[in-house]
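Before a colleague's protein record goes any further, I have to sign it off. I want your independent view on whether this chain really folds as the tokens say. The record follows directly below this note.
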Amino acid sequence: MPKRPCPCASAISASGVADLPEDAIVEERFLAASGPGGQNVNKVATAVQLRVDVFRLGLPPYAYQQLKTLAGTKMTSAGELVITARKFRTQEANRSDARERVAELIDKAMERQAKRRPTKPSKAAKARRVDEKKGRATIKAGRGKVSFD
């Protein structure tokens, strides 16, 4: 099935920040980050913790279920998706990274899984399997103890 883009998060604006519905974003908090930045890390809160209310995104049930699976521990019991971005040295870069990661998760969740169609082996396949089993059985039977009666 062709991949359909998510209407709620796939668009990226000119600034490089993924467009999430503003009512879906519960909180955007800046934290002190570890990682690159030297002494600046100790002074400036550059990491971003983004909280998104999944119910306000208007996802279909299959996508919501898949998002829960993909998000794992990033999804709270209240239905909030918590993404922490601290890869970059600036708030804006981390902010756009967090939004892009949310958009990627939603896009992956929107992909429908192919339905499994159960199949049955043919008679010829069953016969081949039985013949192979019989062949292995005779080989193994030949390995037994030799009696000189």
